[in-house]
Amino acid sequence: YAKRKALKHYQIFNTQLLEAFKANIEIERDLQQALKSREFELYYQPLMDLQTQRYIGAEALIRWHHPKKGILYPGAFIEIAEQTGLINAMGQWVLETACKQLNLWQHKNIDLTMHVNVSARQFFSSQLYAQVWTLVTRYRIKPKRLILEITETELMSDIEHATKLCKELAELGVGLAIDDFGTGHSSMRYLKQFPISKLKIDRSFVMDISSSRESREIVSAIIAMASALNISLTAEGVETKEQEAFLTQSACHHAQGFLYSPAVRESDFSHLLTLQQSLIN
Ligand code: C2E
Ligand code: MG
Ligand code: MG
Ligand code: MG
């Protein structure tokens, strides 16, 4: 019996693995087509200033309108794009689309900072600097209005190259944010060495603010550190008033999360901005 049970488990495991494998191959095949067929769209999630309770920026987050599967989130395809190298073309499209949008905001005198996620492969590609330079020039972007986000783990995977790139980007005036901060292992020394403009505290710490003293201590420590290094700080994944209160009281600068808004299409984001304007005026 045990043997048969083991065999059954093996078959289930195998079938699941095979299904996952097939799904990935499908995604990979469909990704090739997606850019050409204009199936990607950038959604925007507002970043909030905790003191003034006003929007100060937006993070561009990619969505894929898959012809058969419906809307897909980056978790379902970014890794595959990264492995296959498709991330380069996709990342270029993301950067350009975000810069076009930023250009429109600048025209309307909307003073927002645009955050754009870049993956490791894109960040460390020899083209990145030229890409960013070209877009900033073409779309007349005020460089400090553009912030590239890279995760802590990815940034630290090649410290020498990262240091060089950070310096180049800083000279250009474009900002750099370390995403998912606290989940990797950067030391104070590196943080001092990189010209970083922003840290984003990972959602996993924010999530536990109300329930875990340890998480509160970690968040406080990160806030103190950022302040000592003169780096601006955003808390990710803020969902409750309680979390917000703790962050505000601890002098965290900015927050982002479902409490304010999820990432929405551009038209809905414009609506959010109009709503805020009408509340203030
Ligand atoms: P991230 O850069 O850390 O982005 C934050 C993620 O948390 C987003 O998920 C956002 O929708 C989600 N989020 C925001 N507020 C809350 C909240 O209050 N609660 C919860 N539960 N979630 C919240 P999303 O859009 O699925 O993106 C996942 C990751 O995919 C991003 O993490 C980023 O690393 C990557 N990504 C997204 N867009 C791009 C892109 O254009 N290029 C690259 N290379 N990566 C991207
Ligand atoms: Mg991000
Ligand atoms: Mg993050
Ligand atoms: Mg993330």
Automatic annotation (TrEMBL):
<feature type="domain" description="EAL">
    <location>
        <begin position="24"/>
        <end position="277"/>
    </location>
</feature>
<protein>
    <recommendedName>
        <fullName>cyclic-guanylate-specific phosphodiesterase</fullName>
    </recommendedName>
</protein>
